[in-house]
Amino acid sequence: MHGLPQYFAHSMKQHLQYRWIHFTASSSAKAGSESSRGNNSRPQGPSAREEVEGDYLHDILLQHASYELTYDRSLVKSKMVRYSTRSTVGKFVCSTCTTRNPMMWVSGVVCTELWFCLGTNRCRTLLHSQKCKRCNQYAEPGVDRGNYVHKVVRALDRWKGLRKPERPFSRNYVRTGPHDSGRCHGCLKGVCNVNARESDGNDD
């Protein structure tokens, strides 16, 4: 684990208070090309994907952003589309391991790609899975609602000129352990910023 919030690192009791939101097939069906609602169920079956579209989390962003947003899966980096990566807090539960004690782990570095078109207020996020140490299969992340909203809305506000640039690391974040780059799909894809300091002005 790496870069977990200070309050998260303090105690397991606070860990249990996190509101994890996982992708499900039913939420994908509702999403379409625009947005969908998240829920707290785990994806079923062994075929976890390497990366998950964030459209099922879009309604949460709408509740906290001070402007209209539309989710667009087709966004890619261009002159009109800003791009960055963020590390969000997530919990992984391997759906491939079928033992009585399924593999579960928490990471402060869930690689999250973010695109935003300033002219149309369209946005897109992509969350990357991590491999289970037991079976070496990918597990999809369940993100912490508050942390996800904080990271994404803060970046969007910065791009819209509603927030001033901040120092790379918030004082609320501490290094709690090494990030396993060999099991992070974002690292394997070359987009995870675990080795680079995050900043609201980071467009690379």
Kindly summarize this structure in a few lines.
This protein has 204 residues and is α+β, with helices and mostly antiparallel strands.
Q: Secondary structure elements and their pairing?
A:
Blueprint: E1 4-5, H1 6-10, H2 12-15, E2 20-21, H3 25-31, E3 51-53, H4 58-64, E4 70-71, E5 81-93, E6 104-117, E7 122-128, E8 130-131, E9 138-139, E10 141-144, H5 145-159, E11 173-174, H6 185-189
Organism: Podila minutissima
Domain 3CxxC-type: 87-190
Region (Disordered): 30-49
Structure description:
The protein is of the alpha+beta class and 204 residues long. The protein has one domain. Helices cover 21% and strands 26% of the residues. It contains 6 helices and 11 strands. The protein has helices spanning 6-10, 12-15, 25-31, 58-64, 145-159, 185-189; strands spanning 4-5, 20-21, 51-53, 70-71, 81-93, 104-117, 122-128, 130-131, 138-139, 141-144, 173-174. The strands form 3 sheets. Strands 2, 3, 4, 5, 6, 7 and 10 form a 7-stranded mixed sheet that branches. A two-stranded antiparallel sheet has the order 1-11. Strands 8-9 form a two-stranded antiparallel sheet. A hairpin with a 6-residue loop joins strand 8 (130-131) and strand 9 (138-139). The protein is elongated, with a radius of gyration of 16 Å. The protein starts with a strand and ends in a 15-residue tail after the last helix. 37% of the residues are buried. Mean pLDDT is 76; it is low at 1-17, 24-46 and 197-204.
